[in-house]
């Protein structure tokens, strides 16, 4: 089955491919279809709202089923900084090395470093409008760890592990991540409704 991923984020597209292609899905992206999504305004109040905005936009253009993730890092002691604004924190074009260093600076004197990544996946089109969600809890590291993953991965250490997503093997990350949890629900839905 063909699915369009409503994203230009290569990291997200690669994660979707790694998780879904072994199950027989052909993953297309907006850029593969020469569709520019830069004008899509993600002004929803929740991750689910923003994911649906992207899938509806692309499905309305293509008439195909579209999947999109909206995800972000939520930090207990900095509740208004990231969350649904994670990608836009300090500007969308700001390098994540700079963003990660700023988060570490803001947390320098905070005892509570608890955080979680959240993912909302929207499946929209061909009469379907579903949301699947997942969280992975952990803490913010004291320093940037590794260069793997993308975004805030190098500063996030999931509970039960002593390494950040930035140093973790991608296969392991793809099994325990917030997106993997949400995708597991999505895959179960697809199996039940195919």
Structural commentary:
By secondary structure, the protein is of the alpha/beta class. It has one domain: Maf protein. It contains 5 helices and 6 strands, in the order βαβαβαβββαα. The chain has helices at residues 10-20, 47-62, 96-106, 170-176, 178-192; strands at 2-5, 26-29, 66-75, 114-125, 128-140, 156-158. The chain has a 6-stranded mixed β-sheet. Strand 4 (114-125) and strand 5 form a beta hairpin. The chain starts with a strand and ends with a helix. The model has no long low-confidence stretch (mean pLDDT 92).
Q: What's the arrangement of secondary structure elements?
A:
Blueprint: E1 2-5, H1 10-20, E2 26-29, H2 47-62, E3 66-75, H3 96-106, E4 114-125, E5 128-140, E6 156-158, H4 170-176, H5 178-192
Parallel strand pairs: 1-2, 1-3
Antiparallel strand pairs: 3-4, 4-5, 5-6
What key phrases describe this protein's structure?
dITP diphosphatase activity, alpha/beta, Maf protein, 5 helices, 31% helix, nucleotide metabolism, six-stranded mixed beta sheet, 194 residues
> pLDDT under 50 segments (min length 5)?
none
What is the number of helical segments per DSSP (H or I, 4+ residues)? 5
The CATH class turns out to be: Alpha Beta
List how many beta strands DSSP finds. Answer: 6
Q: What's the CATH architecture name?
A: Alpha-Beta Complex
What is the typical, i.e. mean, pLDDT? 92
Radius of gyration: 16 Å
How many domains? The number is 1
Examine the coordinates and then state which fold CATH places here, giving the name of the CATH topology.
Maf protein
Q: How much of the sequence is in beta strands?
A: 15-25%
Give, in spatial order, the strands making up the sheet with the most strands: 2-1-3-4-5-6
Order of helices and strands: EHEHEHEEEHH
Cα distance, first to last residue? 10 Å
Query: In this structure, how is the largest beta sheet organized?
Result: 6 strands, mixed
Q: Find the structural class using helix and strand composition.
A: alpha/beta
Which percent range fits the helix content? 25-40%
Global shape: globular
């Amino acid at each position: 089955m063909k699915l369009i991923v409503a994203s230009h984020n290569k990291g997200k597209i690669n994660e979707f491919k790694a998780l879904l292609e072994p199950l027989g899905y052909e993953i297309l992206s907006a850029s593969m279809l020469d569709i520019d999504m830069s004008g899509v305004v993600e002004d929803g109040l929740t991750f689910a709202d923003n994911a649906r905005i992207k899938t509806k936009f692309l499905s309305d253009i293509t008439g195909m089923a579209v999947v999109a993730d909206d995800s972000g890092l939520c930090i207990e002691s900095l509740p208004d900084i990231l969350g649904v604004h994670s990608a836009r924190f300090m500007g969308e074009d700001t390098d994540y090395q700079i963003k990660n260093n700023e988060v570490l600076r803001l947390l320098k004197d905070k005892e509570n470093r608890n955080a979680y990544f959240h993912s909302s996946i929207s499946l929209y089109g061909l009469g379907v409008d579903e949301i699947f969600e997942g969280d992975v809890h952990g803490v913010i590291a004291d320093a940037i760890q590794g260069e793997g993953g993308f975004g805030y991965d190098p500063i996030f250490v999931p509970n039960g592990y002593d390494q950040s997503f930035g140093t973790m093997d991608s296969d392991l990350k793809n099994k325990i991540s917030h997106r993997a949890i949400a995708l597991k629900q999505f895959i179960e839905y697809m199996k039940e409704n195919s």
